[in-house]
Write the C-alpha cells for this entry.
Amino acid sequence: MSAPSTPSAPAAPAAAPSPVSAASAASAAGPDAARGSAARTYALDRAHVFHSWSAQAEISPMVVTAAEGSHVVDGEGNRLLDFSSQLVNTNIGHQHPDVVAAIADQAHRLATIAPQYANDQRSEAARLIAERTPGALDRVFFTNGGADANEHAVRMARLTTGRPKVLTRYRSYHGGTDTAINLTGDPRRWANDGAAAGVVHFFGPYLYRSRFHATTEAEECERALEHLEQVVQLEGPQTIAAVLLEAIPGTAGIMVPPPGYLAGVRELCDRYGILLVVDEVMTGFGRTGAWFVSADEGVVPDLLTFAKGVNSGYVPLGGVAVGPRVDEHFAHRPYPGGLTYSGHPLACAAAVATLEVMERDDVNGHARRLGEQVIGPELHALAERHPTVGEVRGRGVFWAVELVTDKGSRTPVAPTGGSSPVMAGAVQQAKALGLLPFTNSNRIHVVPPCTVSEAEAREGLAVLDKVLDRVDELVAETA
C-alpha cells in the first residue's frame, strides 16, 4: 500500500502494497487455466457448500482467488478494491506479511494446545488486549468469534447477578448462535426467536429516524435514555442482569450514538445494579480510529466483547474482556463454560502480530485521519450531490450511506433486512467498476481496511459517486 499523502500521517503500514502480487501466482499457468480452476471451485461450492443467511438455490457466490492489501481478485482475474473488509474484519488488510509469518512460525512451533494449559501466545495476546481495554478489564476469556463472545458475556452476567433478563436495542446484531441471535434486534432474529430467551428489546438513539420526535442530538440522547429507564422500571430492575449494546451498531446501520449516550447508559446500569456489556466486535481495534469506542468515550463496561479486528480474521478469534465484578464472582467458583479452541495458539499468534503492527504503524491514527479528512468530507459532498442519499454517518473507516427515494419522505429504497432492484443495481454497478461493496437493507457501508491508503480511499469514493449516479437513475425510473 502506498503511504497516505496527508503530510501529518505516518508512513502507511507495510501490510498493503498496491499491486496484488498473489494474483500473478493464481494465473501463473495462464488465464484459461486460472478460469478453469475458478470454474471448478464454483461448481464444487454449488454442489457441496451450504451458505449462511441464503436460499441455497438462489445465490451465485463470487469466487475469490487471491487478495492482498486492500484488494481481492475474482475468478475472472478482475481486481476489486475491497470496501467491505469482507465482513468488516480485515482491519489491517489482506495477507499482511507480518501476521502471515507469525501464523506460520507458530504452526511450526506448536500448532494447537488445549485451553487448560498456559501458552505464550495466548498469554501475550491477553496482555496486549487488556492493556487497550478501558478501566480494569484485565482478564480475557477467549472464544472463536463474536457470537460466542456475546453468548458467554450474557452467561457471565446472569450467573453473577442471579437475574434472568437482558436488554438489547432494536437495530442491532450480536451473532448467530442461539442466545446471540435472540439478542439481535434486526429481522435476522425473527425465524429463530421463540420468545423464551429472556431478552427485551428497546429503542436506541437514531436521530435520522427518531422514535422520540427529537430534532437535535441532545434531545435524542435525553429521550432515548428516558425510554431505556422506563423499560428497566417496567420490566423490573431486580430481574435484569445486563444491558448489552453495540458501541456503534454496525450491520444495522452505523448509527453513532449522540455524545453522552453511552455514559448515560453506564450511569443507569449503576443506579439499578445492572451489568453493562458493550459489544465491540465490529468497532474494536482501529475501525473507528481508536482501540475501542467505549475507551474513546471514557466509559468502562463490566464486560466487553470483541472479535474481527483483533487479528483481522486471519484465524477465528473472539473474546470477553472481564471486569472486576464478574472476575471476583468466579474467583472461587468454577465458570461453567468453555470451548475446545479457546485461545487457539494460531489465532493468538495472529492477534499478537496484528496488535504489534497496529501500534508500530499507528493504524488507529491513520484510520481516524482518513475519516476526518477524506472519507467523511467526501461522503458529505456526495450527499449534497445525489438526491437519493438521505444521510451519511460514521467515524474512522466505519461509515454508512443511507439511500432513500427522496430526501423529504426519507423512504428507504429497500426494506429493513431485505433488498430491492435499486440495491441490486448498485451492487452490480460497483463490481463492474472494480469496487467490492458492503450493503445491508437500504445502505451502502464504506468500511475499507483501516490500512487503506488515501489514494485508494479516494479511488473507491470516486467509484461510489458513479454507483450513486446509477441509484439516482433507478429511483427516477421507478418514481
